[in-house]
Amino acid sequence: MNGGKHPIFDGDLLLLERITSSNAGSITNTTIAIERFDAAGDEQFLLRDVKKQINAQGEVTYLLVARNPEYEVMEANDEFVTFARLREVLKLPVN
Hints:
Blueprint: E1 13-18, E2 31-37, E3 43-54, E4 60-65, E5 74-75, E6 81-90
């Protein structure tokens, strides 16, 4: 997530709020933590911004956008498990 106006760098600490489908509310335009399994079956954890998209037919899809432009935009689907919302990035003092 080392891109955008508010980059997250290696060593930064993330304050996450655990969410479930019953207490998440709207997650559009927020940054969420996602769990998924890749093609090899390995567990991955992703941090993505959620963007709502409405096509010409009025169908709604949600896009998962990395702040780092090196990563492609993904369309949300059932393989992603949202488990937390990013509340704050804590920058540790450099010694």
